[in-house]
Write a structure and sequence with these properties.
By secondary structure, the protein is α/β, with parallel strands linked by helices. The chain has helices at residues 16-22, 27-45, 67-86, 106-119, 135-151, 162-166, 214-226; strands at residues 8-12, 52-59, 94-98, 126-133, 179-182, 201-204. Helices cover 40% and strands 14% of the residues. Bound molecules: farnesyl diphosphate (FPP). Farnesyl diphosphate binds next to helix 1, helix 2, strand 2 and helix 3.
């Protein structure tokens, strides 16, 4: 039997740089093409029953890139956020972020806070943008908060369970992704949702992110629907 549509899909949008290089264009144009591809994709995803999309926009490791590329990415993000703020009245998209955004410029933090606030009552697709996000960093932040709550007697160490731990993560308000997609032929998770993807299905494609379309997403979903998910159990034990 085919599986239902995944409710939460997470995407590692990789290959913007190679897309630009193939065209003898600056990296900045590749990232802009990547942002446009995401916008176009979301317009179609909004019409489906998919409830959550998480995208890896800037990792804790991306700070190692050249200053110019980092600035270009931050400016692109500011434009992207600005566009959604402008379109808020006519859009039903709900947008928030995961990751430690306290290190971003005050300007960008303000825009993000404003966008989160004005879109929080929206009932459509939720877009979670991973910004200065790293799975290890998220886990370390969660451990620090748990340790603090143990110290102040808000929780008892014996009561720490997987569920409680999950409730300290940035993704506490929604379910883990059933499907994680990575473009550009790389076969790594690169510190993306490492706790949450423990039982996710992975789909890798050679397509570079700016070329990734809704039809490619359908292909990924089709591949996911054909697989068996056993969560460590046996299919026959469920009969
Ligand atoms: C990886 O491609 C991609 C990124 C580091 C940034 C992803 C950002 C976007 C798609 C656009 C901005 C997003 C939003 C939400 C506005 P790469 O540059 O590492 O590609 P390469 O491996 O081919 O060089």
């Amino acid at each position: 039997m085919e599986r239902a549509l995944p409710k939460h899909i997470a995407i590692i949008m990789d290959g913007n740089g190679r897309w630009a290089k193939k065209r003898f264009l600056p990296k900045k144009i590749g990232h802009k093409a990547g942002a446009d591809a995401l916008k176009k994709l979301l317009e179609k995803v909004e019409k489906t029953d998919i409830e959550h999309i998480t995208v890896y926009a800037f990792s804790t490791e991306n700070w190692k890139r050249e200053r110019q590329e980092i600035d270009d990415l931050m400016n692109l993000l500011k434009d992207y956020i600005g566009q959604y703020i402008k379109d808020n009245e006519t859009s039903n998209l709900k947008i928030d972020t995961i990751g430690d955004i306290s290190v971003l410029t005050e300007d960008l933090q303000k825009d993000l806070a404003y966008l989160k606030e004005i879109s929080k009552e929206k009932t459509g697709l939720s877009l979670h943008i991973a910004l200065n996000y790293g799975g290890r960093d998220e886990i370390v932040r969660a451990v620090k908060n748990i340790a603090n709550d143990v110290k102040t007697n808000n929780i008892c160490a014996d009561n720490i369970t997987e569920e409680l731990f999950s409730s300290y993560l940035d993704t506490k308000e929604y379910n883990d992704p059933e499907l994680v997609i990575r473009t550009s032929g790389e076969l790594r998770t690169s510190n993306f949702l490492i706790w949450q993807s423990a039982y996710s299905e992975f789909y890798f494609t050679d397509k570079l992110w700016p070329d990734f379309t809704f039809e490619d997403l359908q292909q990924a979903i089709y591949s996911y629907q054909k697989r068996e998910r056993r969560f460590g159990g046996r299919l026959d034990s469920q009969c």
